[in-house]
Amino acid sequence: MRHHAGTDGRPGVSERELRDAVEQTREQLGETVEELAAKFDLKAKAQERAAHVKERAERTARSGPGPLIAMGAGALVAVMLLRRLLSGRRC
């Protein structure tokens, strides 16, 4: 097995150790690239978000129209009060 000289001219690490170190570095770099690609994959993130919104909508729909009717009624009352306040009339 050949040894390569270190920076000071003395024998350093073996060729096999260098190859192992290079292979390990390649693997780490590959993992890092995959992590970065996943982090910046906007299409996948948008699909994930859409699936989450769809799931919430399905849960709400299964729970019946009650919550939606209550939210609509609350919004209607808020709009009516706002119109009265802006028109100068009292409630």
Could you please describe the fold and organization of this structure?
The chain is 75% helix and 8% strand. With 91 residues, the chain is mainly alpha-helical. A two-stranded antiparallel sheet has the order 1-2. It has three helices and two strands; from the N terminus they run ββααα. It has helices at residues 15-39, 42-62, 66-87, and strands spanning 3-5, 11-14. The termini are far apart.
N- to C-terminal distance = 94 Å
Q: How would you describe the oligomerization state of the chains in this entry?
A: single chain
In terms of DSSP E residues, the strand content is: 5-15%
| Secondary-structure class | mainly alpha
Low-confidence sequence ranges? none
Globally, the shape reads rod-shaped
SSE diagram, text form:
Layout: E1 3-5, E2 11-14, H1 15-39, H2 42-62, H3 66-87
Antiparallel strand pairs: 1-2
Question: What descriptive keywords fit this protein?
Answer:
91 residues, mainly alpha, two-stranded antiparallel sheet, 3 helices, 75% helix
